[in-house]
Specification:
- By secondary structure, the chain is an all-alpha fold.
- It contains nine helices and two strands, in the order H-H-H-H-H-H-H-E-E-H-H.
- The protein has helices at residues 2-31, 51-58, 60-79, 90-120, 129-152, 157-182, 187-212, 240-275, 291-308, and strands at residues 221-223, 235-237.
- The longest helix has 36 residues, at 240-275.
Length: 309
């Protein structure tokens, strides 16, 4: 039961974070495309009234992120003290694997806490956005490494495949953060990063259902009855045919979640555009991105004006 509850918490946290970042990204690029630049954190809009209350509300998403990372860090640290005879190498390997995951969450937690303190205290200088994205890229890469290592030590093919797919999403997030560190105006990378976080949240939910809920465990697989619920590797597939079928089902569900995230992206963009008052007025050409393009457009306009005269 504990494993499923943690997966539910992780899923809700990641979905909330990803959807909030996606909404803010779409809103900023629609309202001011010329001044748009990706940010690792978007504060809530300022409301009229008490300035102190406004400051607290603006930092609410960051505070929720810090609380979620704290819970994840404590969870990984605590389970490292539990015995787990079902992973390769038994309990000692499980302990160091869990501590590795806890260290990754600690890295994200330290960055988030510094970001909150720099926003609150004038004595701390906020880190540049490109440096924050670079740190996030390193954190996601470490999470990819930790998830890949966790998949390698699993005796359960079902859990190993779940961890492997989660690692791939983390690798994608790492690449997107690195792109944003180099190209902060790359809107596609910013939206894809938020969508990838949503995908990770959905996959955490699917992992919990496939491993810990009897009604969602693939046919031919089962949970071991002589171990406590939620222990890594406790969901096993005894027959090779059942293992292959379970892996194919997980691949199908992962693709379904990707489709759901794409639909969510379209719906979110439409809703944000309506809320921002953006209306389609016809076809348009891309705005100039450098001075030479601007000069060329000015020359063309002058020539047209002279011809009409």
């Amino acid at each position: 039961m504990g494993g499923m509850l943690y997966k539910l918490f992780a899923s809700a946290s990641l979905l909330t974070l990803g959807l909030y970042h996606l909404i803010c990204t779409f809103f900023h690029v629609l309202k001011s495309p010329q001044s748009y630049a990706a940010k690792p954190f978007y504060p809530l809009p300022r409301l009229s009234g008490n300035n102190n209350n406004n400051n607290r509300l603006q930092k609410l998403p960051l505070i929720i992120l810090i609380l979620s990372l704290s819970v994840a860090f404590l969870h990984q640290t605590l389970i490292s003290f539990y015995s787990d005879p079902l992973v390769k190498g038994s309990t000692p390997v499980h302990r160091f694997s869990s501590l590795n995951s806890a260290a990754v969450f600690l890295l994200f937690l330290v960055v988030a806490v510094y970001l909150l303190l720099s926003e609150s205290a004038s004595s701390l200088i906020p880190l540049p956005s490109d440096l924050l994205f670079a740190l996030a890229s390193g954190g996601f890469f470490l999470h990819y490494s930790a998830a890949s290592s966790s998949a390698a030590i699993q005796t359960s093919d079902l859990q190993a495949h779940c961890d492997s797919l989660s690692a791939r999403v983390s690798a994608l997030c790492s690449l997107l953060c690195l792109l944003l560190a180099c190209r902060p105006r790359l809107f596609v990378a910013d939206a894809a990063l938020a969508a990838s976080v949503c995908l990770q949240g959905l996959w955490q939910l699917q992992t919990g259902l496939s491993l810990y809920v009897d009604g969602f465990i693939p046919e031919g697989c089962h949970r071991l009855l002589d171990v406590s619920s939620g222990v890594e590797g406790s969901t096993q597939c005894d027959i090779l045919e059942s293992k292959l079928r379970a892996v194919a089902v997980l691949d199908l569900m992962f693709t379904v979640h990707v489709v759901l995230v794409v639909v969510l992206l379209f719906v979110t963009y439409t809703m944000v555009a309506m809320a921002a008052g953006v209306r389609r007025t016809g076809s348009y050409e891309a705005l100039p991105t450098n001075s030479s393009d601007s000069n060329n457009h000015s020359i063309q306009m002058k020539s047209l004006t002279g011809t009409q005269a």
